């Protein structure tokens, strides 16, 4: 496990301390959990942005439509 050193505003450090006491959790574990959740949020936001961009791309829309046609045909063939 790596060790990092950082500077944070006093107000944020106080909030961290307050929540760590309230949750009976070490501050480093609270930071680890919060950072993990935030990075996951950023990843999801990037996915959402890429899907919005793909929705505006004519080539991507055509490709998706062609894929859906093949999928529907496969479903029809299996239900016969």
TrEMBL record:
Domain Predicted DNA-binding protein ribbon-helix-helix: 4-40
Pfam families cross-referenced by the UniProt entry: RHH_3
InterPro entries assigned: Arc_rbn_hlx_hlx, Predicted_DNA_bind_prot_RHH, Ribbon_hlx_hlx
SUPFAM superfamilies linked: Ribbon-helix-helix
Protein name: Ribbon-helix-helix domain-containing protein
Record organism: Shivajiella indica
Taxonomic lineage from the root: Bacteria, Pseudomonadati, Bacteroidota, Cytophagia, Cytophagales
């Amino acid at each position: 496990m790596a060790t990092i050193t950082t500077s944070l505003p006093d107000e944020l450090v106080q909030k961290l301390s307050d929540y760590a006491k309230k949750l009976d959790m070490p501050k480093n574990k609270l930071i680890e959990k919060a950072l993990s959740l935030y990075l996951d949020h950023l990843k999801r936001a990037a996915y959402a942005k890429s899907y919005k961009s793909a929705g505006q791309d004519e080539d991507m829309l055509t490709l998706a439509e062609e894929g859906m046609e093949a999928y529907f045909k496969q479903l029809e063939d299996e239900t016969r």
